[in-house]
Design a protein that fits this description.
A hairpin with a 2-residue loop joins strand 2 and strand 3. The protein is an alpha/beta fold. Helix 1 crosses helix 4. The chain is about 35% helix and about 15% strand. The chain has a three-stranded parallel beta sheet with strand order 4-1-5, with helices on both faces.
């Protein structure tokens, strides 16, 4: 393996059961679904080998795919609750991908509720992150 070989994955969590704002992850925000801004920033950063939306909703999956993300499977309902931890869905997602021989050196969690995050924000964070040793997520 080359010294600076990285395989990066962007994980975008978008469960459908928001309790305060119905369908907040796909709500219209200045003419586009909220989640599209995160997908777009991830794509424009050009650092990810894969951009995956983790969702329990076929409707969300269709929207995410339209904007360029991958949704290779739906997240089970039992790890899509308001009380579910990030650990549960991240482990589920990475384990499923690993079974398909898709291995990543690092993962980023990019929440769809941060539409002002840009490609430059992602690139700046990655540059700073690489200075740390023995870490695997951002």
């Amino acid at each position: 393996m080359k010294k600076n070989f990285f395989r990066l994955i962007a994980l975008i969590p978008a469960r459908s059961g928001s309790e305060r704002i119905k369908n907040k992850n796909i709500i219209n925000f200045f003419g586009r679904p909220l989640i599209s801004y995160t997908i777009n920033a991830a794509i424009k950063s050009k650092i990810f080998n894969k951009i995956i939306v983790s969702t329990d909703s076929k409707k969300y999956a269709k929207i995410a795919t339209r904007y360029g993300a991958h949704v290779p499977f739906l997240r089970p309902k039992n790890i899509s609750k308001a009380t579910s931890s990030d650990y549960e869905w991240v482990k589920f997602t990475l384990d499923k991908l690993k079974k398909d021989n898709e291995i990543f050196t690092h993962f980023f969690i990019l929440r769809p509720t941060s539409p002002l995050r840009t490609k430059n924000t992602i690139l700046r964070a990655w540059k700073k992150f690489k200075k740390f040793k023995n870490v695997d997520s951002l």
